[in-house]
Backbone:
């Protein structure tokens, strides 16, 4: 080795003999040749050391001339620890870009080097096999090299890993290494490797990774294990997110009790340590992965989590006196997901009492005041949603509201009980001071019926109150009727107003006084969904002419600068005008004249279009509610709720056209639309049966034509059991006419429906759009009818062609009675009157063609 180095380096007076770039390039070339051709491992190691000295100053030259030799050396001497360690160090240095380079520029040298590694699957497999070396630095450098290549070429590296059956096993096996440096690097690599690749996630989980993770987490003290536990929980989350197969494996291998143990231990002694809060939040998020709303396994996972005590542990964390504010919010989100749509868990949830806890509104948000008495958990959630006014507690308020939403989901009984309880509380507190300082039984009706409920300093109080009632009204017409019967208490000037009229007047007040946009949006969301297709509620609103004119007048004063609020107001106008009638207290004709004269049709449609195109509506995602950008006051930019956005998008085209309907004609009621759709369904079923009959007749004619008269008896006996049975003894030649009459009736029905829908009101549009729930889409029905008509027309043409072929056949002994026997499946001759002659056949065919 000294002879080799002496041929390249001279150190007279401590100065290098390489005085120019040309000599450096020549030296690099010579080192690469020696590395490729040297026999002794010591010589190859010296060549690698020589190349390493040039990596920073002549990085590009070393990569272009020596990358192949370095890759070959990495595989050839992987059993020699010193050589492979030096080679790995050299390659890692080549992946580090020049410090003077701009970070925004693409590092093509690193990409070129990554491509050299991923060009063949065997290269990545060879690098992974180096992990069998137990040396600390060799393993750390190998894992860092794989991470560097994966960062640059993620998809190609994942393909290489999947092509090698043992690759994942070799990487996962290192998790058991007790050295922290190796564990940290292997966790980073596995998380990057599994991210977005379901196949690799399954392979990692197959290596008993879940048990290994829980063993290590338990060894480090559980949730309180610091950053190390957080890294392992990150890997666990990566394996379970959006992977139903791994979730099933997790559940079936009895890992849920171990997950419950992490929560149950922490729920008894929560802490505000940042690392502990991070780990606990991650465990709660992992629980939420199993109960995604659109997953088919959600019900089974909810039951398992409830039986293993996870649900109760989550509630304890949410209502513990010492829990961090962030932990409370995520725990409430998890609790809402764990009970969503499950009636048994929802019923158990409604019977739980929790401590009454007040969250601090000033200073430290983790400071709480706990009272001795307990309250129902639903009232505790309402209290946090409506009474916690600090801008820092928005996540907690949103989590409490979403937990209530999970309690209401697919359960009208829970909605009804909650509404009745809120009504009772409202009546009991109506005569007391409007807002006592220690009010522990606040309800949403007290907030939405009084326009001075601290809304100037806390606009989200009104917004959340409207959202809670909106979630209740989502249950259907019966709940709307119950809510409409609530009688608001107010000033003397408001005496006699109904709930809907009171809400409308509060909206006018908010618009006149330019209150926060969230207040107006909350009222409009509630009223728009409430009034749509509810004739009684609309008549309730229109019975107070003062309220209607004040609302229209206030809306007409918009300057066109506020796209959201103005578009929302047009949505509200469309909702109650579209289903008003000529018999309404404020008639449809007068209302149409008032809207057109004060607002204008063009302004009406333009503002609706602008609202639909606004990014807040167009790109709405309810899952981003807790991640919204905050304004200068600290309030998040959250304006809409999922229920209203779905409502508006589904009915946008109908709301846009309500003013185009004839105001002198009433809209078609939802009941009439449902009846017409039911009739259309029955008609299509009958048409489908008739078409099947025609297919059987065509097949019968084909058999007769192919086999001839001499074999007709045999054909009749052979196909007797396969024939479809037809009621009656109608000749197959007359069946097309019967179907034709059926289609004629269907055309009359369709024509009648078109006339009805073209008359006026949203009803016609509602019929074509189909609505929601059990009502069938009329557009889909019309398309199905056209398809059936086309199919029947084709079958009739084929039937006519076969009839003509049979009648013109040169077989004079052909008797159509054979066809009748094929149709009826009975031996013998049918009635003579039902056996037409050849001439009759031609005549019938001619008449039918006409």
Residues:
């Amino acid at each position: 080795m000294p002879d080799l180095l002496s041929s390249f380096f001279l150190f007279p007076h401590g100065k290098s003999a390489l005085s120019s770039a040309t000599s450096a390039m020549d030296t690099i070339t010579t080192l690469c040749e020696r590395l490729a051709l040297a026999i002794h491992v010591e010589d190859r190691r010296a060549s690698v050391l020589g190349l390493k000295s040039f990596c920073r100053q002549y990085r590009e030259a070393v990569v272009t001339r020596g990358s192949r030799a370095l890759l070959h050396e990495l595989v050839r001497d992987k059993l020699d620890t010193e050589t492979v360690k030096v080679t790995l160090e050299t390659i890692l240095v080549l992946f580090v870009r020049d410090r003077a380079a701009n970070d925004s520029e693409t590092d093509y040298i690193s990409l070129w080097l990554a491509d050299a590694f991923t060009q063949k699957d065997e290269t990545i497999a060879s690098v992974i096999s180096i992990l069998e070396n137990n040396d600390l630095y060799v393993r750390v450098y190998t894992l860092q090299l794989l991470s560097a290549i994966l960062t640059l070429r993620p998809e190609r590296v994942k393909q290489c890993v999947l092509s090698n059956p043992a690759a994942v096993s070799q990487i996962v096996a290192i998790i058991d290494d007790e050295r922290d440096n190796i564990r940290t690097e292997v966790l980073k690599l596995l998380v990057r490797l599994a991210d977005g690749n379901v196949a690799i996630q399954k392979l990692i989980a197959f290596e008993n990774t879940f048990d290994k993770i829980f063993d290590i987490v338990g060894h480090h003290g559980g949730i309180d294990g610091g950053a190390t536990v957080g890294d392992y929980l990150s890997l666990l989350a990566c394996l379970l997110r959006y992977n139903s197969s791994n979730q099933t494996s997790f559940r079936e291998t009895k890992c849920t009790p171990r997950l419950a143990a992490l929560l149950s231990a922490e729920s008894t002694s929560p802490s505000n340590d940042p690392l502990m809060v991070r780990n606990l939040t991650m465990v709660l998020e992992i629980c939420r992965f199993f109960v995604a709303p659109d997953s088919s396994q959600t019900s089974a996972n909810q039951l398992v989590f409830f039986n293993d005590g996870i649900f109760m542990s989550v509630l304890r964390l949410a209502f513990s006196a010492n829990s961090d504010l962030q932990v409370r919010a995520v725990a409430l989100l998890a609790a809402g997901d764990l009970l969503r749509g499950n009636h048994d868990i929802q019923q158990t949830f409604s019977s739980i009492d929790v401590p009454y806890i007040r969250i601090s509104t000033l200073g430290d948000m983790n400071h709480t005041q706990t009272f001795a008495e307990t309250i129902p958990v639903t009232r505790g959630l309402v209290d946090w949603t409506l009474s916690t006014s600090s801008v820092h507690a928005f996540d907690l308020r949103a989590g409490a509201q979403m937990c209530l939403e999970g309690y209401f989901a697919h359960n009208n009984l829970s909605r009804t009980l909650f509404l009745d309880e809120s009504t009772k509380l409202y009546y009991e507190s109506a005569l007391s001071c409007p807002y006592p300082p220690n009010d522990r039984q606040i309800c949403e009706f007290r907030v939405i019926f009084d326009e001075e409920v601290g809304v100037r300093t806390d606009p989200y109080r009104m917004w959340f109150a409207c959202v809670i009632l909106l979630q209740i009204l989502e249950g259907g017409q019966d709940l709307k009727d119950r809510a409409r019967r609530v009688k608001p208490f107010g000033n003397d000037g408001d005496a006699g107003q109904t709930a809907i009229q009171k809400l409308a007047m509060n909206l006018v007040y908010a618009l006149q006084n330019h209150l926060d946009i969230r207040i107006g949006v909350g009222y409009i969301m509630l009223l728009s969904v409430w009034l749509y297709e509810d004739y009684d509620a609309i008549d309730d609103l229109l019975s107070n002419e003062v309220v209607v004119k004040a609302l229209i007048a206030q809306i007409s004063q918009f300057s066109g600068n506020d796209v959201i609020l103005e578009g929302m107001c047009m949505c509200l106008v469309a909702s109650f005008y579209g289903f008003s009638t000529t018999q309404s207290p404020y008639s449809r004709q007068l209302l149409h004249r008032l809207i057109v004269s004060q607002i204008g049709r063009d302004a009406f449609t333009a503002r609706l279009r602008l609202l639909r195109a606004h990014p807040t509506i167009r790109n709405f995602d309810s899952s981003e509610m807790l991640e919204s950008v905050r304004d200068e006051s600290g309030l998040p930019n959250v304006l809409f709720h999922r229920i209203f956005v779905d409502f508006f998008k589904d009915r946008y085209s109908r709301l846009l056209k309500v003013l185009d309907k004839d105001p002198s004609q009433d809209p078609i009621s939802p009941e009439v639309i449902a009846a017409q759709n039911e009739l259309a369904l029955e008609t299509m079923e009958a048409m489908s049966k008739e078409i099947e009959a025609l297919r059987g007749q065509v097949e019968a004619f084909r058999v007769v034509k192919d086999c001839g008269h001499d074999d007709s008896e045999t054909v009749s006996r052979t196909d007797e059991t396969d024939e479809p049975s037809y009621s009656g003894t109608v000749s197959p030649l007359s069946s097309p006419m019967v179907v034709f009459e059926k289609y004629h009736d269907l055309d009359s029905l369709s024509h009648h429906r078109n006339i009805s829908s073209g008359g006026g009101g949203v009803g016609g549009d509602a019929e074509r759009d189909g609505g929601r729930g059990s009502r069938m889409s009329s557009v889909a029905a019309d398309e199905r009818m056209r398809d059936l008509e086309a199919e029947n027309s084709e079958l009739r043409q084929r039937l006519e062609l076969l009839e003509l072929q049979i009648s013109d056949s040169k077989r004079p002994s052909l008797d159509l009675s054979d066809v009748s026997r094929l149709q009826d499946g009975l031996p013998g001759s049918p009635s003579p009157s039902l056996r037409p002659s050849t001439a009759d056949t031609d005549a019938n065919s001619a008449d039918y063609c006409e």
